[in-house]
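Before a computer can learn anything about folding, someone has to put a protein's shape into writing. The outcome of that step, for a single protein, is printed below:
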Amino acid sequence: MIYSDMIKLAVFDIDGTLTRDGSVKPSDYTIDVLNKINEKGIKLGIASGRDVLQLKQIVNEWDLPFSFSLLIGLNGSEYYDLDKNDIKHLYELSSEDVKDICDKLLGKFPDLNASIYREGKRYLLYEDEMALSSKKRNKMGNVIVPLEVLWEKPCGKLMFRVDEETMKKIEPLANQISNDRYRACKTQTTMMEFVHAKSNKGNALKMFCEHNDIDLNDVIAVGDMNNDNELLLTAGIGVCMKNGAEETKKCADYITDLTNNQDGCAHFLLDYFSDLF
């Protein structure tokens, strides 16, 4: 594999990429590989659907031997430049758009559990098994609210966590109602999210790089799902996991030989950066 000695930044999705299924932390092997890369002067970043304050808490709890320089949150609605201690909020859904999305989806699927992030907590309509599991996994408090509370203020994203069979039913409608104000993106096989039409991980990466004099050609990014597509297309080198979505694989320059459950990201990095070691 060809190694570019110009890479200055490596950015990673978390779920399905850095972590194994059911795990909240990268394996020791993956952490060791990331540390070796960072020691060679390559900055590291995370790009996730979680908000940046939650991401900061998560990576602090990982107790890593290195520090991340970039946290992209809410699928590109915000990012945190940790080296400068600077949070930038980029794009939000308006209150009107949140109401519009809820009206259209809940009008046809009234049992859907809509939720948003606000003030470091998740506001949702009710707690079900999936919400409780996510609460435990992400250590984030759930606040049960009436539907209209969700659109009291603008927000970074609107979420619908469903089982895989329900996803097959709502995905066509979610894509159909997407427009020039907001768009749907499936971030997991059980999570449909809506964000501002201009909000994506790629745009957030581009803005961070502009503010830090990093050429996008000197960035490598790794992801697995549709919300990573723009990230992989924007970075100079885009990598999709073997377990990734077919659409995301089409956006990548490389596909890992192994899945996330086999530490596929770490193995790819060791191969790609073999000249460093």
Remarks:
- The first strand starts at residue 9 and ends at 12.
- The chain has a mean pLDDT of 93.
